[in-house]
Amino acid sequence: MTNATDQVSIRRKMGRLAPVLPALIVSVAAAIAFILFPYDLAFLTRIVIMMIFVLSFDLILGYAGIATLGHAAMYGCGAYAAGLVSLHLASDPLIGLLAGAVAGALIAWISGCVLLRAQGVALLMISIAVTMVLQETASQARWLTGGADGLAGITVSPLLGMFEFDFVGQVAFVYSVCILIAVLIFCCILASSPFGLALRGIEGSASRMRAIGTPVYRRKVTVYVIAGAIAGIAGALAAQVTGLVGIEVFNFSLSADVMVMLIVGGAGRLYGALVGTLVFMVVHHIAAGIDPFNWLFVIGFMLLIIVFALPKGLISLPDRLVALLRRKP
Amino acid sequence: MTSGLAVHGLSKNFGGLQVARNLTLSLPNGARTALIGPNGAGKTTFANLLTGVLKPTSGTILLNGKSVGKMSESERVRAGIAKTFQITNLFRDLTVRENIRLPILERERRTNKVFCHSDGIPELECEIFQLLEDLALTPLADKPVRGLAYGQQRLVELALTLALKPKVLILDEPAAGVPSTESHLIVQAIKRLPADLSVLIIEHDMQLVFEVANRIIVLVNGAILLDGTPQEVISNREVRELYLGADHG
C-alpha cells in the first residue's frame, strides 16, 4: 500500500509539471520564429490562431471521438461576436475575446444538445447543416453582420491599455502566442483530469462508459461547449488581428481544413494539433506561392502519405522510428 | 422492504415477438444464482432488461424495495446494478490501471472534475492497487489492455465492474472465449466476490455454473422453466432433455 502511495506522490509531482513543458516549448518556438521571420508575423499569427482552433477540435475529435464537420460554426460566431462588441460596445481586446468565447460556447451548447444525440454520418450532416444555417443567417442579417460584405473596420484598443497593435503585427503575434499558451495549458490540465480520462473512455467505448454509470451525452455536451468556447476565442482573435469578419468564417472548407490539420498532426495528443497546423499551413503557403492553381494537389498528396504511413499522424513519427530501430538486430 | 433485487412480471415484446414472458424472481443479498438456457432463450435480453439497456414492456424491477424500472442505464449503475459484457468491452487503448480508475472516479462522481489530476487521489489509487492485487493483475497494471490475453481481459472486465462496488452483479458469460487453461482464474475470482453481493451468472459452461452457483434458473423461450438448487436442476428430466442432454448426471 505504501508503494501505491509513493507512486501516486511521484505521479502527482509529474502531473503538476506536465502543463509547463508545452508552454515552454511554444514560448521558445515562438521567440525563435519572431526573431527569424520578422516580416512574416501576419502569417505566423494566422498559424497561431489556427493552432488554437485545431486544439479545440482535438478536444472533441481526438479525446471524445466526436467527428463533426461543422466546427467553423463556433469559430465564426466567436469572430462575429468579437467584431460586434468591438464596433458597438467596447474595444478592449480581452473583452472581445470573452465575447468570442461566450458566443462560441453558446452556439456549441445550442447545437450540441441536438447534434450530439446523433452519431456517424447523421452527426456529420447535422453539423454541416448548422454551419450552413449560420452562414445564411449572417448573409441575410445585413443590418447586423454587414451581409456578404462582412464586418469591416474592426479596431481594438491597446492591449492592457499599453500595447498598441502595430502595423508589422508584433503585438498581435505576441498576444496570440500568449492566448495559445493559456489555451494549451488549459487543454493539458483537462486532458490529464478525471474529465479528460472520461472523454478518452467515451472515445474508446461509449457503451462501456454507460455501463459504469457515466452520463455519456452530458459529458459530450460539456466538452463540446468547452471546445466551442476555445474555437470562439480563435475566431475572436482572427477578427481582432485582421480587423474584418466575412461570412467565409462559416465556410465548410474551414471545418474540413481543421480536420485535415488534426489528422496530419495526430489526434488526441494536443501536440499533434500544433504540429499538424504548422505543417499544413507552411506547406499550403509554400505550395500556393509556387503554383497558385494546383497547390491542393500537394496538400492531398501529403495527406495520402501521412494517412497510409503514419495513421496516428506526424506526432507518432518518433515512436514509429524507435519501434523500427528496436526491431532491427 | 425486500433486500436485494426483486423482479415481478417482467415481459418484453419486439413487435409480435415475445422475448421475455412474465419473469418473476428475486436475488437476495449474497445470492449466487446462475441463469442458464439454450441459445436464444432470452438470457442476455433479461440481463439487458435488468441493467436498463432495454425497456420492459411490462413488469417491475425493485432494488432494495425501490423501483429502478424507469431509470436509465447509467442511473441503474449508480443505484447499484452492474454487469460485465458477454463480449469483452474495455477501453483498449488505456492501461489496466486506467481502466479500473475510470469506474472508481465515476462511482465517486469525479469524472466531471477538470482542475485535478486523474491519478492524484491517493485513497482511490490505493483502492485500484487492492483490486489489482485481488485479481492478480498487478504485473499487468501499466500495460494497455489491447495487448492482454483474452482471459486476462475478462479479469479486467470483472475488476472494472467490481470497482463500482455494486449491490447486484450480473456476469454475462464470464468465461465465454476464455481458454480452458485460464478459466480457473475466472472461477477463483467469482468465488472471492464479497459475500453480501448478489450475483447473477449467465453461463453456458455447466462445470463453472455448478462450481459457483447455489441456485439455478432455467430459461427457455423467454420464460422460466425451473428455479431450484443445482441438484433439482440436474434431476429434472425436462431440463436434461432440453439443455443438459439426456445423458447428463
Briefly summarize what is shown.
The complex is a heterodimer of chains A (329) and B (249). With 329 residues, chain A is an all-alpha fold.
Top keywords for this entry?
heterodimer, A: 329 residues, mainly alpha, two-stranded antiparallel sheet, 15 helices, 75% helix, globular, B: 249 residues, alpha/beta, Rossmann fold, six-stranded mixed sheet, four-stranded antiparallel sheet
Explain what this protein looks like in three dimensions.
The complex is a heterodimer of chains A (329) and B (249). Chain A has 329 residues and is mostly helical. Chain A has one domain. Chain A contains 15 helices and two strands. Chain A has helices at 2-17, 20-36, 41-63, 72-88, 93-115, 120-140, 142-145, 170-191, 194-204, 206-211, 216-242, 252-265, 271-290, 295-309, 317-327, and strands at 151-152, 244-245. A two-stranded antiparallel sheet of chain A has the order 1-2. The relative contact order of chain A is 0.17. The model of chain A has no long low-confidence stretch (mean pLDDT 90). Chain B has one domain (5-244): Rossmann fold (3-Layer(aba) Sandwich), CATH 3.40.50.300. Chain B starts with a strand and ends in a 5-residue tail after the last helix. In chain B, strands 6-7-8-3-9-10 form a six-stranded mixed sheet, with helices on both faces. A four-stranded antiparallel sheet of chain B has the order 2-1-4-5, covered by helices on one side. Chain B is α/β, with parallel strands linked by helices.
What form of chain A results from the Cα inertia axes? globular
Strand order of the largest sheet of chain A: 1-2
- What count of helical segments of chain A does DSSP give? 15
Beta-strand portion of chain B reads: 15-25%
Oligomeric state = heterodimer
Number of domains of chain A: 1
Distance between the termini of chain B: 39 Å
What is the number of domains of chain B? 1
Average pLDDT over all residues of chain B: 88
Low-pLDDT stretches of chain A? none
Largest sheet of chain B: 6 strands, mixed
Determine the fraction of residues in helical runs of chain B and give it as a percent range: 25-40%
Overall pLDDT of chain A, averaged? 90
CATH topology of chain B, which one? Rossmann fold
Name the beta content range of chain A.
Answer: under 5%
SSE-based structural type of chain A: mainly alpha
Which CATH class of chain B is shown? Alpha Beta
Order of helices and strands of chain A: HHHHHHHEHHHHEHHHH
Shape of chain B: globular
Computed over alpha carbons, the radius of gyration of chain B is 18 Å
